[in-house]
Specification:
Elements: H1 3-19, H2 29-54
Length: 79
């Protein structure tokens, strides 16, 4: 889940919980709103943790392999 989706879930959940005063048969919109907000917050935390780990840079003290490059001058340039 991305950051945008998480924020969208939080916003929809807040609208259902705090702004609407409607009732649908057998469904409590306040509970659905709280569940959506919790899912959005959880998704935001998980996304932050995953993206935080991807941005870590691993460096080594020495190169893994040395390569020697030589230029040959006995071959003419391509036509």
């Amino acid at each position: 889940m991305g950051i945008g989706t998480s924020i969208f879930l939080i916003a929809v959940g807040a609208i259902l919980t705090f702004a609407l005063d409607a009732s649908i048969g057998g469904v409590n919109l306040d509970v659905v709103g709280w569940i959506l907000m919790a899912a959005g917050v959880l998704g935001l935390i998980m996304t932050t943790l995953v993206w935080g780990r991807r941005r870590e840079v691993v460096t080594t003290a020495e190169p893994v392999e040395y390569r020697r490059v030589e230029e040959r001058r006995d071959v003419g340039p391509p036509l």
